[in-house]
TrEMBL record:
Pathway annotation from the record: Cofactor biosynthesis; biotin biosynthesis; 7,8-diaminononanoate from 8-amino-7-oxononanoate (SAM route): step 1/1
NCBIfam families referenced in this protein's UniProt entry, alphabetically: bioA (TIGR00508), PRK05964.1 (NF004624)
Protein's UniProt name: Adenosylmethionine-8-amino-7-oxononanoate aminotransferase
Annotated family: Belongs to the class-III pyridoxal-phosphate-dependent aminotransferase family. BioA subfamily.
Database matches in HAMAP family: BioA
Cofactor: pyridoxal 5'-phosphate
Residues bearing PTM N6-(pyridoxal phosphate)lysine: 293
EC number: 2.6.1.62
Name of the gene encoding the protein in the UniProt record: bioA
Function: Catalyzes the transfer of the alpha-amino group from S-adenosyl-L-methionine (SAM) to 7-keto-8-aminopelargonic acid (KAPA) to form 7,8-diaminopelargonic acid (DAPA). It is the only aminotransferase known to utilize SAM as an amino donor.
């Protein structure tokens, strides 16, 4: 049984019910199951108002990197907010933004030299799409009015980002009349990430996917301004891990057809896949790179769209040339968020963050090997610090009936047992903060096995 909430929370929850509209939520659900009040965060744990401590097994939507309330991030926030909380970024600059580009630039691949600031993953993607389109126009490629994207991709919830996400799901299908023109390409999942892989026919599957990619670009390459992809793992699409060889092929096809390659590392960046960026594992550098989520270690909203010098050059000119990139947000380049991002990046230099990620990778393999022994678990797989599997009904081997809301129930029961997980459809995954001790992952595995067996 969950611990009861303190009595004062009943009024607060009534207030929530009366006025607050939560994200990604059919609000009727909260009539029976109100949102869980959280009063604190400490390391890899969240502290609930009922006095319980839960492991943040999904890093609060993949944002929290070094743990909640990390003293160095908190003090960077306090210091910067007291000194200069915010200033508009058009016509002004400041030290935290300059320190941030100085710290980040050497960690990026290729010739990504120009950073455009915005506030979240979706706007980082919007910026990349608009930059790609405008750069193509300004280099004389006026017919490039479409985009390319992977099936099962997710790039955020603003209309531009929705337009290059997967269309055929409940979240985006209804907006289809409003969206960008986009052609979609399917890539196979990489069985080599599975803990019990069946590699029969894999070389042929890979060769045919390569061939399919070439045919796709032959058909659509001329009309595309850019192709966008989440490198190596499509997170919201159900933790679909896809092969680095196809990312290399994607790079080659973009080059061959004059299409910019946008890599969306909003979720995969900052060590989640075991390397600082996922694209490093394929040796691929994009023309435009989107970063957010872990950029501030999960403390404040901030994002960056990095562009190559060649793209930047297409925007250069006299004020009267009309070549400027006329995009911005009120909080673009917020100094407090930049200072926290600098503190987060400093931790990568001063502490063994990527070594911890390797320990989490080992623990994740053990965890999903144990989970894979359960009859309700299929296709257990691991990439870096991310472990995932498919949940099925053990009696049929088929997906759970959506009416049973198995994932939601698992989420709520797990909270009562000290663990935050939130399956995406039939995909259950763990992506904890990079400071999580392996023993906590073992505990989480035991909790999940217990819950799956109920
Ligand atoms: C790959 C990817 N891109 C973009 C976004 C959108 O980021 P935000 O929710 O910060 O707008 C997400 C969010 O989950 C994401 O996973």
């Amino acid at each position: 049984m969950p611990s009861p909430l303190p009595p004062d929370w009943s009024d607060r929850l009534a207030l929530d019910r009366a006025h607050v509209w939560h994200p990604f939520t059919q609000m009727k659900v909260h009539e029976a199951d109100p949102p869980m009040p959280v009063i604190g965060g400490e390391g890899c744990d969240l502290l609930l108002a009922n006095g319980e401590r839960v492991l943040d097994g999904i890093s609060s939507w993949w944002t929290c990197l070094h743990g909640h309330g990390h003293p160095r991030l908190v003090s960077a926030l306090e210091r910067q907010a007291a000194r200069l909380d915010h200033v508009m970024f058009a016509g002004f600059t400041h030290e935290p933004a300059l320190e941030l580009v100085t710290r980040l630039r050497p960690k990026l691949p290729g010739n990504l030299t120009r950073a455009f600031f915005s506030d979240n993953g979706s706007t980082a993607v919007e910026v990349a799409l608009k930059m790609a389109f405008q750069a193509q126009l300004q280099r004389g490629e006026k017919g490039r009015i479409r985009f390319g994207a992977l099936r099962s991709g997710y790039h955020g919830d603003t209309l531009g980002a929705v337009g290059v996400g997967e269309l055929e799901n409940f979240m985006t299908g209804l907006f289809s009349p409003l969206l960008l023109a986009c052609d979609r390409l399917e890539v196979p999942e990489d069985p080599r990430c599975e803990l019990h892989p069946d590699l029969t026919g894999w070389p042929e599957t890979l060769a045919s996917a390569r061939q399919g990619m070439r045919a796709f670009f032959d058909a659509h390459g001329e009309r595309m301004a850019a192709f966008i992809a989440e490198p190596l793992i499509q997170c919201a699409g159900g933790m679909r891990m896809w092969p680095p060889e196809l990312l290399q092929e994607l790079r080659a096809q973009c080059d061959a057809h004059g299409v910019y390659l946008i890599l969306d590392e909003v979720a995969t960046g900052f060590g989640r896949t075991g390397t600082f960026l996922a694209c490093e594992q394929a040796g691929v550098a994009p023309d435009l790179l989107c970063l957010s989520k872990g950029l501030t270690g999960g403390t404040l909203p901030l994002s960056l769209t990095w562009a190559t010098e060649a793209i930047y050059a297409h925007f250069w000119g006299e004020p009267s040339s009309g070549r400027a990139f006329l995009h911005g947000h009120s909080y673009t380049g917020n100094p407090t968020a930049c200072a926290v991002a600098c503190a987060s990046l400093a931790l990568f230099d001063d502490e063994p963050v990527l070594a911890n990620a390797r320990d989490i990778h080992t623990a994740m393999k053990e965890a999903f090997t144990a989970l894979a022994a359960h009859p309700g678990v299929r296709q257990a797989r691991v990439l870096g610090t991310i472990g995932a599997c498919r949940l099925v009904d053990p009696s049929t081997g088929q997906a759970h009936d959506p009416e049973s809301r198995f994932g939601w129930r698992l989420h709520r029961r797990a909270l009562d047992q000290g663990l935050l997980v939130r399956p995406i459809g039939d995909c259950m995954y763990l992506m904890p903060p990079l400071c999580t001790p392996p023993a906590r992952i073992r505990e989480a595995t035991e909790t999940l096995l217990k819950l799956l067996s109920r």
